[in-house]
Amino acid sequence: MRSVIVIGGGISGLAAAWQMRGMADVTVLESHTRVGGKLRTGTIAGVTVDEGAESLMALRPEAVELATAVGLGEALCDPATSPVTVWTHGALRALPAGHVMGVPTDPSALAGTGLLSPEGVARAAAEETLAAAPLTEDCPVGRYLAARFGQETVDRLVEPLLGGVYAGRADRLSLRAAMPRIAALAEQGAPLTPALRRLRAAGAPRPAAAVQGVAGGTGRFPQAVAEACGARILTGTTARTLSRIPGDRWRVQAMTGDGALTMEADAVVLALPAFAAAELLRPHSPLAEAELAAVPHASTAVITMAFSRTRAHFLPEGNGFLVPAVDGHTLKAASFLSNKWPWLQAAAPETFVLRASVGRIGEDDLLARPDRHLVRAAVSELHRAVGPMGEPLAARVTRWDRGLPQYEVGHRDRVARIREAAGKLPGLALCGAAYEGVGVAACVATGRAAGRQVLAGA
User: What SS3 class is residue 172?
Assistant: First the structure.
C-alpha cells in the first residue's frame, strides 16, 4: 500500500486520513497532545462546552456527511430557532430574514428595526435602481457593497457577519474569496437586490437550519473521525523538516517528547496553517513558501462564562448577538449556548452558559490584555447589551493565536499560485483553512480533496 504522512491532526488532516482509509498506510502527526485543532471541548462549572467552533455548516454538506459517516448522525442537532441579532445603537435588534451575509434582499424590511437610519434604509433600497458595470477584478467587500448599498449597510449589517466568520474587516476582505455568491452576481453587471431575490426564490430546498451542532460538543467530531479513519495517529509530534529522498519519496524529521523521530513515506499531506506549511516548503518551493507566508492571520479569544439560573438577576433570550466594529465595543459577538443548543440545556438545567468572542485583525493590543481584564470587559458589555445578569460562577478565556487566515483581495489568485507551485512536487498535497474556506465544512472538503489527490498519484 502507498504510505502517506499527514502533518496536522486538525479536522482537515483527519478528513484526508479518512478519505484514504483502507487504501493507504496513513500516519498522522499532530504537535499538540490531542487531535482536532480548533474543534475542542472543555468544561466550565462542570458543564461540557465547545471552546472553538461550536457548529457545522449545514448549507454545504461535507462536514455533516462526514459526521454522519463516522457515527455521529444521531448526535447532530439543530439550534433553537432565533433571528440573527445585532447589538447596535444601544439595543439588540433582529436582522430581518432574507439576507445573504448581511446583504439585504428586501431593504424595506429594515425600516423601523433601528439597524439603519431612515437615510440608510433608503440608500440600501436604491441599489436595484443603480447602473452596474460587470465586476472584472477582485476588490474589497466593503468598497463594492458600499457603492451599491451605502456605507451604513456595510458597517451595520455586513461587517458584523464577516467579523464573526473571518475576524476580518470589510475594507480588506476579498469579495471573490469571502463572498463568492455575491461576486458571481457582480460579474454579471446587474443590480444585486433583484438577482439575490431570484436566487432565493429558485434555489434548491434549504435545510431547516443553516448550521448544526453535535450533542456533547462539536469537539467530539474530530475524535470520531480519528477513530474511524484507521490511521496511525501520533500526538505530541512536531514535524521540523521535510526533505526529498530517492524514489520521489519524502522524509519527515519530527520531535516528540521522547526525542527525534524520522519517518519516510510515498506522499505527504500538509494540513497546517499557512505559516507553518510555508516553513516546511521553504527548501522545495520558494514561490509556495513566499505566498503561504504572506497570508495574514487574525488572533481571537473566546470567553466562556457560566451563570447560576437561580442566582442570576437576568437571563437573556435568543441565541446571541453580533456587534458592528464601528460601535467601538470590545466584544464582536456573544453566543447564548444554553439557549441555542437543547442538549446543553438538558445536560445542565441549573446553569446558563454563554460565550463571548473578541479579536479582529489588527486588534493585537486588545488580545494582549490579561485574561481577567477580558472577562471583566465581557461581563460589563453583556450587562449593557442584555441586562443585569450578575457575576458568573466561573469564566475562562481560550486564546486562538493566528487562528483565522484572512482572505484579503487577491486571495483566490494567491491560492492558485500556491497550488500550481505545490503541484510541481510529486506526492505532496495541501489542505486546511488557508485555501477555499475557513469553516469546518470547507476544511473537510479540502482534506478529502487532498486525500483523493494523493491516492490518484499512486
Answer: coil
Instruction: Supply 147's cell numbers.
Output: 457603492
Is the same domain home to 306 and 291? no
C-alpha cell at 281: 516548503
* pLDDT score, position 136: 96
Q: Which residues lie across from 269 on neighbouring strands?
A: 6, 429
Q: What is the DSSP string of 315-335?
A: ---SSEEE--GGG--SEEEEE
Flag whether the pTM goes above 0.70.
yes
- Which stretches of 187-259 are DSSP H helices? 192-202, 220-229
> Is 212 a domain residue?
no
Cα dihedral 229/234/237/242 (nearest 10): -60
No. of helices (H) and no. of strands (E), the chain: 18, 22
Report the 10 Å Cβ neighbour count for 22.
8
Q: Which three cell numbers stand for residue 159?
A: 461587517
Q: Is 112 buried (19+), middle (13-18) or exposed (0-12) by CB count in 10 A?
A: exposed
Considering the domain architecture, whether residues 102 and 150 belong to the same structural domain is answered as yes
Q: How much is the pLDDT for 210?
A: 85
Residue 280 belongs to domain with CATH number: 3.50.50.60
Same domain, residue pair 310 and 397:
yes
pLDDT at residue 206, as a whole number: 59
Q: What angle do CA 270, 271, 275 make, to 5 degrees?
A: 80
Determine contact, residues 179/340, Cβ cutoff 8 Å. Answer: no
What are the grid coordinates assigned to 102, written together? 448581511
Residue 310 has pLDDT above 70, yes or no: yes
Residue 247's CB is within 10 A of a number of other CB atoms, namely 9
The amino acid present at 71, given as its one-letter code, is: G
Identify the domain containing residue 100 by its residue range. Answer: 85-202
Q: How much of the chain is helix, strand and coil, in % rounded to 5?
A: 40, 25, 35
